[in-house]
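Box S2. Input/output pair 1.
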Amino acid sequence: MFFDLNFPVQRISSLQTASKKGKQPQQAEAVPTFLPSQISAIEARVDLLIHLGYSVIAFSQTLNKKIDPKTHVNFLDGLLVQLRSRSGIVYLKRLNIILDRDSEKGFGLINANLSLFNSYDLIALIPTTHTTFSLACLTHSLPSPLTAHIIALPLTLPRLPYHLKHTLVRTAIKNGAVFEINYVGSLGGENDATLADANAAESGSSAKRNWWAATRELVRVTKGKGLIISGGVVAEADLRAPRDVANLIAILGLAQDAAHEASTKAPRSLVVRAQTRKTYRAVLSEPTLVVPFDHTHSTLESSQVAPESTANAMSAKSSLDNSIPQKRLRDMSGTVLDEVASTVPGLSQKKKRKRDQKADKLVT
């Protein structure tokens, strides 16, 4: 089972309701509309991904501003309703948030907006500054209802806007986050329009060169751990099969089995961990039936069994006593006492003398 967890959906036209006075539109939720041509284009890309061998596809919505609960709209819900169902294919919803300098003070990923994020299966952060990269690795990767399990780096920029520190990367991987590699940059293909407008991605031959240098550095810092490979492809001509992508990533110095797991095992584990956002304290386990112990019933059973067990114990004791020969002392002479004392092990000389003195007193 192969995963493509980054299927960009272009921004769509929205209808805003005007106020009665006609001065400004009301701050109401925009009504997302998909044209039939847009639906057919998305259907064609999905069919091609399925033909290439992908089974799990995550449709992504990208934001380049602070999340406002009054204006934010999850248009992926309406998209999945219009797409035709396919047997054996899983659709996921993903939210990409671009973090710039304005996002250092906050970008809306708070508990007050929890209801907005619960409709998404995956949350990904795209940091473009050193401060936002530190926040993504140290703070937003911790288990919580708002955990961002994917950190996507702007690999196609001329130079990464921050240094990949080992401590930050290891902490993010330890917390359960993964670093995403979109192979569209290796082809110099077209990126999401929202990323291009936010200066978080580039296209062309220069972007291809930048991608190879930045991705090699990412593989070196992570040592091949905590990586997933996604598409991020907008044009159908840039789509590639999973085996071709694994061979492409292996050129960066990643082992062949690790490159294969980056498209199969690692994304599957990521999807399972992402479900912990909706569980208590991010705990995901199978329920176990525990039968309570009935003390009253056990007491009654013990009272019923007690007489029988006592009688059996007494009969066993009597038979044991009969089997042991008993030596009877017929008189208080020393010879008999010496014979009995000799059978007692560990009797010291001092105790023997005391015993003899007591015997002499009794005889006299």
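Box S3. Input/output pair 2.
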Amino acid sequence: MGLHRSLPVLLLFIWFLPLPILRAQSPSSPTSPARALDVLLQDYAYRAFVRPRTGIPYDGVVPTNLTGIKISAMRLRSGSLFTRGVSMYKEFKIPIGVIVLPYVERLVLVYQNLDSLPTDYYPLPGYTYLAPVLGLLAYDASNLSAKNLPELDVRASGEPISIEFSDVGMVPRGTIPKCVWFDLHGLVNFSNVVSGNTCLSYQQGHFSIVVESIAPTPSPVVAPAPPGGGSNEAPPRGAGQGSSGGGKKNNSRVWIIVGSVVGGLILLVLLGLLVPWVQKYKRRKKMQQMEKAAEVGEALQMTSVGSTKAPAATVTRTQPTLETEYVP
């Protein structure tokens, strides 16, 4: 009985053990500048609804310290979004078959255009932005005066959502533009650009077009010749120095892999112990049922037959009938 009670508790403890490690490595948190900006823009986008009509976008006004950011809000029915989609909402084209979870009768799509402020909220070391960061987030529309609402989960079940950027900078020679997508957890995903200025996605988030930054080639620095003659060339700057950002990223991956492997091995060991315990428990249960059935049955008296004792019934339930006693 002690093993029966402690084993589920131990399983739950092992299951949740790797979670703090994974969360600790998450690149985003609810208090990050980007997430705080989403909360603020949702509030100001909802203020644009005075007498809202379904399917019509309403442009909002941001505070003065966020000048340059553009926002808009559009209220839709979940059923209409799934069956009809949205032909064009700013730069976003939403196809039919978009699913909203959890289900709400009405939702609001909040549009964001960070314009000239992408690096302030979505820094991307090693890359240069060619287009503004565009955001599309979904919220519940049951209360248009609510603040600090959680985002709904929006996923395209058929064709992907397309983002057609209207203002894309010149692509530097020797580079290839890439679509970048920041999900709500802060993870960064790259994909290919379609038709020169279009990105595709099956989920909501923030999107832009970037290229890898080209670092200028440092010119060699020649030190002055020593008095004894000869010359010494100074080594290039940064020689022997590793990238701290790359080291942190590798450490994060290592910890995630180690935590997952250790948790999986411990779970397998516990499952190996759980299977024999279940089999033993089933046998014990079966024996208890057999003992209970034996106690309920009718007890037979013991009768001596020669030198051997055998059970004998006291009453014969069915009386035999002789052929001579049968009267038709």
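Caption for Box S3: The CA atoms of residues 41 and 56 lie 18 Å apart. The two ends are 67 Å apart (CA to CA).
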